[in-house]
Amino acid sequence: MGGMKHPILIHPDPRLKKVCAEVPDLSDELRVLADDMLETMYDAPGIGLAAPQIGIMERLIVLDCVREDEGDPRPLVMFNPRIVASSDEQNVYEEGCLSIPDQYAEVTRPKLVQVEWMDRNGTAQSEEFDGLWATCVQHEIDHLDGKLFIDYLKPLKRQMITRKMQKLKRERARA
Ligand code: K1U
Ligand code: ZN
User: Fold this and answer.
1) Nearest Cα residue to atom 14 of ligand 1
2) Tens digits of per-residue pLDDT, 13-58?
3) What is the CATH number of the domain that holds 109?
4) Cis before 45 (ω within 30)
5) Which of 47, 66, 94 to mutate to test the pocket of ligand 1 (most atoms within 8 A of CB)?
6) Are 143 and 50 in contact (CB under 8 A)?
7) pTM for this one?
8) Is residue 9 part of a domain?
9) Where in the sequence numbering do the catalytic residues fall?
10) What's the CA gap between 64 and 34, in Å, rounded?
11) Whose CA is nearest to atom 10 of ligand 1?
12) Which of 11, 61, 82, 98 has the highest CB neighbour number within 10 Å of its CB?
């Protein structure tokens, strides 16, 4: 039984700039939303997705950074994710974003992060992430705070990408 795929908002959009609200209580509706987000993410395809990217202004992210040739999928659903510690050691990764299609740039972030969240059963979880998982979970939590990876770039580069996205949106609106 397939769920529902949601259209992904493209930058610039005011909803991608807002701070999302904490999820006070889990509900079946939110669990269905999380499943829909995973389906939307795998379909894109992507390795992460945050609720505001589909216009839902709540603190919910999903991710799965297992590479296809690497092993079984590991879909993670995180309600109210919070970084409680990060390493001094930094890591550079060429990031992309489903809300900024076909644009990639190097972003420097802490290499290791300890994250606390509530899972789909309402159970508190805590785990240390490394490598691509660490990069991705930081990118997704940024979305919940209205922050995009291009906000880490020099203004000129950011402006160039924003103009390309405005053009893409105009073209899509006409099509
Ligand atoms: O949040 C998003 O927009 C999803 C984004 C997550 C992300 C990618 C790279 C670094 C940090 C965070 C993406 O998934 S972009 C697509 C992508 O990276 C990818 C897609 C298919 C296979 C492998 C990677
Ligand atoms: Zn993104």
Assistant:
1) 46
2) 999 999 999 999 999 999 999 999 999 999 999 999 999 999 999 9
3) 3.90.45.10
4) yes
5) 47
6) yes
7) 0.97
8) no
9) 140
10) 13
11) 95
12) 61
Instruction: Count how many domains the chain has.
Output: 1
**123, 84 Cβ separation under 8 angstroms:** no
Whole-number Å distance, alpha carbon 136 to ligand 1 midpoint, is 7
Domain, as residue range, for 32: 14-174
Q: Which CA distances in Å does 153 have to 20, 80, 119? A: 23, 27, 32
Q: How remote is the CA of residue 174 from the centroid of ligand 2, in Å?
A: 25
Helices (H) and strands (E) in the chain, counts: 3, 7
Whether 94 is covered by a domain: the verdict is yes
**C-alpha closest to that of 113 among 94, 90, 93:** 90
pLDDT in tens, 61-115: 999 999 888 889 999 999 999 999 999 999 999 999 999 999 999 999 999 999 9
* Ligand positioned closest to the Cα atom of 150: 2
Among all chains, which residue has been given the structure tokens 């700039």?
A: 17
Give the Å distance between the CA of 8 and the centre of ligand 1.
Answer: 13
The best mutation among 10, 13, 63, 97 to test binding of ligand 1, ranked by most ligand atoms within 8 Å of the C-beta, falls on 97
Nearest ligand to the C-alpha atom of residue 104? 1
Centre of ligand 2 to C-alpha 104, Å, is 11
- 88-106 as b/e: b if 16+ CB within 10 A: eeebebebbbbbbeebebe
